[in-house]
Inverse folding.
């Protein structure tokens, strides 16, 4: 039976980037504008928080320990023991209007992150890949707001959204090199009859793409051919991203935001909370760690 639980009433300004780590059996997530990293167990307990020095877009755990984070001005290493944050690379310097946003690790352990325009208006942003050896490569550009990077179960199809196109794109992804090519429209929110915008996304074990329709308060699932397969209503309209977690990878953890959008605050008291969605009847895939 479908059940949605308010796990942590966090009042996050911009909750984002939930990441379930199967090895630790813990959930990590961030408050992008609050510049914080949070962690808790499957039921929302045993929580911890780390402050970071800039706005944060995403987080990945590292095989060598600690985390790698995308902050406003680049990639940083976060020591989870001490809280120290060390800058690794600034892929796109000299542009104060942009910041790093959503990112995920591919099946080979590389971290792929895109930027967003603070004014959420112009296609001045790009998508980058950080390799284990520290090399940085540009994968695409002409983007307003990067969101929802994720991969098919075999890793050969890369999904990614520029939120303000209201589309999720698919690319051919080279497993050896990490290059993305042959961009095409995977699905259109407008053509699917959805009112929101594509935000965070994940692929389940069956190869279906789940996205959070932000400003509409829905979890939506697309079949591998891009057709809308399912829509699940959520408690707040300002939900932002999801991760499959729990011992069986069958719980969808969903973040949300309490920030004002165009001067209007969310009407729901629960905006900014972390939610757990049980009973979806699907399982996710384990999230890889950054190999550097």
């Amino acid at each position: 039976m479908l059940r949605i639980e308010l796990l942590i009433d966090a009042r996050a300004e911009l909750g984002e980037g939930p990441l379930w780590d199967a090895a630790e059996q813990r959930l990590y997530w961030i408050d992008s504008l609050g510049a914080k990293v949070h962690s808790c167990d499957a039921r929302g307990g045993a929580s911890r928080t780390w402050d970071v020095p800039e706005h944060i877009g995403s987080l990945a755990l590292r095989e060598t320990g600690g985390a790698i984070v995308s902050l406003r001005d680049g990639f940083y290493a976060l020591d989870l023991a001490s809280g120290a944050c060390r800058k690794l690379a600034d892929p796109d310097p000299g542009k104060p209007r942009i910041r790093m946003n959503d990112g995920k690790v591919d099946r080979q352990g590389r971290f792929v992150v895109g930027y967003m325009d603070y004014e959420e208006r112009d296609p001045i942003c790009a998508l980058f890949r950080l390799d284990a050896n520290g090399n940085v490569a540009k994968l695409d550009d002409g983007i307003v707001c990067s969101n929802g990077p994720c991969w098919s179960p075999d890793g050969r199809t890369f999904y990614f959204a520029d939120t303000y196109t209201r589309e999720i794109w698919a690319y051919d992804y080279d497993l050896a090199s990490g290059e993305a090519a042959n961009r095409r429209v995977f699905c259109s929110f407008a053509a699917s009859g959805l009112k929101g915008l594509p935000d965070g996304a994940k692929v389940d074990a069956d190869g279906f793409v789940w996205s959070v329709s932000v400003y509409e308060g829905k979890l939506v699932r697309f079949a591998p051919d891009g057709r809308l397969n399912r829509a699940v209503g959520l408690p707040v309209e300002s939900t932002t991203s999801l991760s499959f977690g729990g011992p069986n990878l069958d719980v969808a953890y969903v973040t949300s935001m309490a920030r004002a959008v165009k001067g209007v605050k969310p009407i729901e008291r629960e905006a900014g909370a972390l939610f757990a969605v049980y009973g979806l009847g699907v399982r996710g895939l384990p999230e890889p760690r950054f190999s550097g």
